[in-house]
Write a structure and sequence with these properties.
The radius of gyration is 21 Å and the shape is globular. It has helices spanning 2-15, 43-57, 68-80, 94-99, 172-184, 189-200, 211-217, 227-232, 263-273, 276-285, 304-307, 314-331; strands at 34-39, 60-65, 88-93, 127-131, 134-139, 163-164, 222-226, 238-241, 252-256, 289-290. By secondary structure, the protein is an alpha/beta fold. It has a 6-stranded mixed sheet, with helices on both faces. The chain has a 4-stranded mixed sheet with strand order 6-7-5-8. Helix content is 38%, strand content 14%.
């Protein structure tokens, strides 16, 4: 009860004008009841989950937000200094987590036997959180239904300069999209990349958040984004296509930091986010797919079997990234 009162008091202070100039950390519980989370999720995703976790457990959660690459690099630097400030990484594609696996501690959350096999770490160094299929989108005023069918269209010259595709050296989902293209189209990977860059015609977008709006506004005709993003921003001007060749559904994940100061609380959070309550929330409120076998997608969405999910090797993707970035920057005429 005392812990819950502390949390309630802190919330009131933060929300009230009286909190200005007040050191709210003075009202936080002791170290044994704290948790520090780094997350690349948006507030609409992590906010309600962390709030419910705090209310159920009385554990006080400090949240640090940022891009997954930025946060993982920060975790690596803290590890080199022998002073990890973070207890848990919440977010980031599992391929990105795989590239920093030396920073993580093995952990087997409760209910892991109910998880789908995609994106699992054999060593238990990370745990998938939600499944994120990639889809194609198009402007319904400028593109007729059936004109856009699959990944091969990204290489079709008729769409040159009209494709919304975020810079994959910045966007994790766009990097996944590029490697999904490699997996679904026959040919040499680097020839495919060169053809893609040529078809983008210098028009790679700076951020994945720009993709949907550029297609909806008509500044680009077609694009690539996550199913979650397309569903959240669905409108009459936006059509969604599940690629004929199949697609990837690389999960984002969670990972316990090696040497975490509040490791037990981090394990409790992992158990919580993989529980049915949170996993059902992903489907009902957040337009995401659960990683649990006993939580299914809404009936109005295709099943994963219907999507034709490809076998996407996260270790291959992690190992290829440095070479990919070098070649991408050369093809784009950017000095690395």
């Amino acid at each position: 009860m005392k812990r819950l009162l502390c949390l309630a008091l802190m919330a009131l202070l933060l929300l009230s004008g009286c909190a200005q100039g007040t050191d709210v950390s003075a009202f936080a519980p002791g170290e044994e009841e704290r948790l520090v989370i780094y997350t690349s999720h948006k507030d609409e995703v992590y906010g309600p989950i962390i709030k419910e976790f705090q209310q159920r457990t009385g554990i006080w959660v400090e949240v640090v937000t940022g891009g997954s690459g930025e946060l993982l690099e920060r975790i690596a630097m803290e590890a080199e200094g022998g002073q990890p400030a973070c207890d848990l990484m919440f977010g980031g594609g599992v391929e990105s987590l795989a590239a920093y696996e030396d920073c993580f501690e093995p952990c087997t959350p409760e209910g892991v036997e109910n998880l789908r096999g995609v994106g699992l770490s054999e060593e238990g160094l990370w745990t998938p959180f939600s499944s994120l299929p990639l889809v194609l989108i198009y402007n319904t005023r400028l593109v007729s239904e059936g004109e856009l069918t699959g990944w091969a269209d990204l290489l079709d010259p008729r769409w040159k300069g009209r494709i919304a595709f975020a810079d994959p050296t910045v966007s994790g989902s766009s990097y996944t999209a590029a490697l999904t293209l490699f997996s679904c189209i026959e040919g040499d990977d680097w020839d495919i990349l060169a053809a893609l860059v040529d078809n983008l015609d210098g028009g790679a977008l700076p951020d994945s958040g720009d993709v949907v709006e550029s297609v909806r506004s008509g500044s680009r005709y077609i694009g690539v984004t996550l199913e979650e993003t397309a569903l959240k921003q669905r409108s009459p001007e936006l059509g969604i296509v599940y690629p004929a060749e199949g697609t990837s559904a690389v999960p984002d994940g969670c990972a316990l930091i090696k040497g975490a100061k509040h490791a037990e609380n981090a394990r409790a959070f992992l158990d919580f986010v993989l529980g049915r309550d949170v996993q059902e929330l992903l489907v009902s409120d957040l337009h995401r797919r659960s990683v649990r076998t006993d939580v299914h997608a809404p009936e109005d969405l295709p099943s994963e079997a219907e999507l034709g999910i490809i076998d996407y090797d996260v270790h291959w993707a992690g190992a290829l990234k440095e070479e990919f970035i070098r070649r991408w920057t050369e093809l784009c005429g950017v000095t690395a």
